[in-house]
Write a structure and sequence with these properties.
single chain; mainly beta; 21-stranded antiparallel sheet; DUF5723
Length: 476
């Protein structure tokens, strides 16, 4: 808890820079493409139509029992990699060597940490499964200039007038997600699933600098800065946050829904599609909405430093603060997968695209299996313009699973190396792992068991999706 508290305090104190720099080192990402089409608990909860149980082998209940089930991943593109890496490695904010110009930097991330999962094999008929989960999620994006980083390190490096040096935007959102999953087979080849969630917002920050200007007086060494833009957040200062901030209290409630389908062709091709986390959060009436009109000058004298600049910018923003609630969308995604098994080798072609926000991935997951063990190698192209290489090791039986992997193994291994200072360089780090256990009665085929969930019930009883789609059938 202390780690999270210190993180939130740091974010609050530097809220103007939050989406422009510090967000890069505090936020995480996780997609774990190597787990798609593996019938692990993660796969079943992330892709609602997927199965987690195997007839005649699996036991009736599954859970992670609060054991590790997480993914950590981040990527940053641009000359700011120097500042990012020195901050991560040495806890020093440094911009030496970064050009004082409008060169762009981008950062992209989202996180998905399953704190608890519980899944039930509900019925043999239509292979119905019901699941419940508690997650913590976050999403972030930042687009910012080299000049923004330099200004908060040493504004004396500015030796000329500049137009739009601080123009950029960024956001960060984190929340709890309490979900119910349900899936069933509509036919032997087709299945549908749905995931309905209740959300509790933790933190939200969004900044958009639309105009900025620097006037430098060479004779007096005086710097005049003006900015215009907007800022929204559910907190403004560190004193508004404490360890209780992490406890879900539904003061910032929300809803989301996800749904998906799978289809297995007679020739062995497996198709899967999912829409994930389509929803919203309403941040409470004590949240902050700030609009700063352009043209309000801040003058920095030669004897003053960057702390003075930061303080006066904060004062400028807080003087325009309004307390009111607002709505934000969750970072919904569209995932598509095509796969076919060839003995021990299974390739999976995946396209994942953010629906509302910028970004997405195209991945080719090459999975190689031998008995209960498997490894995968996954080249991934991020739609923001960089390549990643993922790898994963997995041990999986019908009643136990353990996996460890990375979506960006090469960059993770080299994160301590100093990058070049071009705007095309990028840094990244990634690791994920999880454990799942099944227990209870074995879900045996009815021919092998005296009792099976769903066997012996009303023969005309239909599943939820069978009833739903039955409405559209024409009566003879």
């Amino acid at each position: 808890m202390t780690i999270f508290k210190n993180r939130f305090q740091l974010m609050a104190k530097r809220y103007l820079i939050l989406s422009l720099f510090l967000i890069l080192s505090t936020q995480i990402k996780a997609q774990q493409y190597g787990l798609f089409n593996t019938k692990t608990l993660f796969d079943a909860f992330e892709n609602p139509a997927q199965k987690a149980f195997v007839l005649d082998s699996s036991r009736q209940y599954a859970s992670n029992f609060l054991l590790p089930y997480f993914g950590l991943n981040a990527a940053n593109k641009g000359a700011s990699n120097l500042s990012l890496r020195t901050y991560i490695n040495d806890k020093v904010y440094k911009t030496t060597g970064i050009p004082v110009d409008n060169g762009r930097n981008q950062a992209y991330q989202n996180s998905n940490i399953y704190l608890f999962t519980f899944r039930i094999f509900k019925s043999y008929k239509d292979h119905q499964e019901l699941g419940f989960s508690w997650q913590m999620r976050s999403d972030a994006f930042a687009d910012y200039t080299n000049a923004t980083l330099v200004a908060f390190d040493d504004f004396k490096k500015f030796d000329k007038s500049m137009s739009n040096p601080f123009n950029g935007n960024g956001y960060g959102q984190s929340y709890h997600q309490f979900s119910m999953n349900y899936r069933e087979n509509v036919s032997k080849q087709l299945a549908f699933g749905v995931k309905m969630s209740l959300l509790s917002g933790i933190t939200y920050n969004k900044i958009d600098i639309t105009s900025s200007n620097i006037q430098f007086d060479q004779n007096q060494g005086q710097l005049t800065v003006n900015v215009g833009g907007t800022y929204q957040s559910n907190f403004l200062r560190a004193k508004e946050l404490n360890t209780n901030t992490l406890i879900p209290d539904f003061k910032n409630p929300g809803l989301s829904v996800g749904f998906g389908t799978t289809y297995t062709s007679k020739t062995g091709y497996f198709l899967m599609g999912s829409v994930k986390d389509l929803g919203f959060i309403r941040w409470n009436k004590n949240s902050h909405s700030i609009a700063v009109p352009a043209g309000q000058d801040i003058t920095i004298q030669p004897g003053e430093n960057s702390n003075t600049l930061q303080r006066r910018l904060e004062e400028l923003f807080t003087s325009n603060d309004q307390r009111k609630g607002f709505y934000t969308a969750t970072n919904a995604k569209l995932d598509l997968l095509v796969s076919k098994r060839f003995d021990f080798y299974t390739p999976n072609f995946i396209v994942s695209k953010n629906i509302w926000n910028k970004g997405g991935d195209i991945a080719l997951v090459n999975n190689f299996a031998y008995n209960e063990f498997s490894v995968s190698l996954s080249p991934i192209y991020n739609l923001n313009g960089f390549m990643m290489l993922g790898t994963q090791a997995k041990y999986q039986t019908p009643n136990f699973e353990f996996f460890l992997g990375s979506d960006n193994v090469l960059k993770s291994a080299k994160y301590k190396q100093q990058p070049d200072l071009t705007n095309n360089s990028y840094a990244g780090a990634s690791v994920y792992m999880g454990i799942g256990i099944k227990f209870g009665n074995t879900v045996e085929h009815p021919q092998n068991s005296s009792y099976m969930p769903g066997v012996g019930d009303d023969l005309d009883k239909k599943g939820f999706f069978a009833k739903l789609f039955g409405v559209f059938k024409k009566k003879k």
